[in-house]
Design brief:
Layout lengths: L10 H17 L1 H4 L17 H9 L3 E4 L5 H11 L5 E6 L13 E4 L4 H19 L7 H5 L4 H14 L1 E4 L4 E8 L2 E6 L4 E8 L2 E6 L4 E8 L2 E6 L4 E8 L2 E6 L4 E8 L2 E6 L4 E7 L1
Parallel strand pairs: 1-2, 2-3, 4-6, 5-7, 6-8, 7-9, 8-10, 9-11, 10-12, 11-13, 12-14, 13-15
Helix pairs in contact: 1-5, 3-4, 3-7
């Protein structure tokens, strides 16, 4: 079970416990005989552990609760998508399903409505039956984009166990530089800094969303996901680097310098770029 967990006593934890006890276990454990495991057993603050990667990759079935739009949930969900193995989505009624997975059916529920809970359990049993009969084929298009699965799994496990993870969110700094590093997760969201530089790094995720930066510089690097949405940056320099997914929605960039850069899936919708230089 991939789920928002939250701290003890939080709204997210109460929600997660109720979903587990009132929807998941009655539908999955009792009727189909699955062992239900939730990821907090292996959770480490600031990073995804190798045990979680193994569970996500090897489990016969993964159920994901998209409620609260928890970033850890979507990170773990992406790992499962590329396996092409059975996966079921849940979400609270009234919450919007993100654009990239809107085409995948999600079971909607309201924990304050007994009829809705009963309906959710019925739909979950139906989808589990379809999964066991090999009829859940609606996520395969995602994995086609990502190439050789064998290579990807080795990379994911290495990132999870060996990669550097740092939480620098909501902090002020003069200069931060990373060179010759493997990075799992680098979080500079909502930070303020003069210069952030990454040279010769292989990064799974770099988050500078809502940050205010003087210079953001990538050189000779490979990044799977770069999030600079709503980021204010004076000089963005992408130099001899490859980026798979780049979210620059609603960003404000004074000068954007591109030198030998490849971006597979860029999103600059709503971005404001004053000057763009390609060399």
């Amino acid at each position: 079970m991939i789920s928002p967990i939250g701290e003890e006593g939080s709204e997210e934890r109460r929600h997660a416990d109720r979903v587990m006890d009132e929807i998941i276990k009655p539908s999955v454990g009792n009727e189909y005989g699955y062992d239900v495991i939730r990821a907090e057993k292996y959770q480490v603050i600031g990073q995804i552990t190798s045990q979680i990667v193994d569970l996500i990759v090897k489990a016969d079935l993964v159920i994901t609760d998209l409620s609260f739009h928890n970033p850890n949930v979507f990170y773990e969900l992406a790992l499962r998508h590329i396996t092409r193995k059975p996966l079921i989505h849940l979400i609270r009624k009234g919450e919007e399903i993100p654009f990239d997975i809107k085409d995948i059916r999600a079971i909607k529920f309201n924990l304050e409505n007994e009829k809705s809970i009963k309906q959710a359990k019925s739909e979950l049993r139906e989808q589990i039956k379809n999964a066991e009969e090999g009829k859940l084929g609606n996520i395969q298009y995602i994995s086609i984009l990502l190439g050789d699965l064998g290579i990807i799994f080795h990379a994911l496990k290495y990132f999870a166990s060996k990669g550097l993870s740092e939480d620098n969110s909501r902090r002020k700094f003069r200069k931060k530089a990373y060179k010759d590093k493997i990075i799992t997760n680098l979080d500079f969201s909502e930070s303020e800094g003069d210069e952030l530089e990454l040279e010769n790094v292989n990064a799974n995720r770099v988050d500078a969303s809502n940050a205010e930066l003087g210079t953001l510089h990538f050189k000779n690097s490979i990044v799977n996901l770069l999030d600079i949405s709503k980021c204010k940056v004076k000089r963005l320099i992408l130099e001899d680097s490859k980026i798979n997914i780049m979210d620059a929605t609603k960003s404000n960039i004074n000068i954007f310098i591109r030198r030998g850069i490849e971006i597979a899936y860029p999103d600059f919708s709503g971005a404001n770029i004053s000057e763009e230089v390609e060399e």
